Structures are given as structure tokens and as C-alpha cells.
Amino acid sequence: MPIYEYKCNKCKKEFEKLVFAGDDKDISCPQCNSREVAKKMSATSFMGGPSLGKCAAGAPNAGFS
Asked: Do the beta carbons of residue 29 and residue 15 sit within 8 Å?
């Protein structure tokens, strides 16, 4: 159950939301209740941590297999 970052297209509020499988269609802004939200690209989604892939910059044996 990942936590995603969103930005409201109406009021510009940025917020995080714990999203269960299949629930990503019902996301609304906590400030204005608009459903016009966009999922943001999060650096924590693909950098650092034990799941660091071989293709990541700075990873041991970095490169494509």
C-alpha cells in the first residue's frame, strides 16, 4: 500500500494519500474536495533504500543487464 503525492489542479494544494489497490480513482483534494488531482512524481518512489536496483546511479555494478 504505497503513499502517493498529489496536487490539486483547482486549489493547488499538495497532499499525500495512502492508496489501496483499486482506490486510486476516488482521490479528492482534502482542502476543496475537487477530484481534479494529479499524481506527482516522487523521488522516494525510485531512489534509495534496500530496493535500489542495479540500474540506479551509484549502485554497485550499475548498468543494464
From this structure: yes
How far is it, in rounded angstroms, from Cα 39 to Cα 19?
11
Measured distance between the N- and C-terminal CA atoms of the chain, rounded to whole angstroms: 29
For 9-57, the pLDDT digits (tens) are 999 999 999 988 778 788 999 999 999 999 998 665 555 455 545 555 5
Cell of 21: 489497490
For 28, residues 6+ apart whose C-beta sits below 8 A from its C-beta are: 34, 35, 37
Task: For 17, list phi and psi in degrees, rounded to 5.
Answer: -145, 130
- The grid coordinates of residue 14 equal 499538495
Name the residue ranges covered by the structural domains of the chain: 1-65
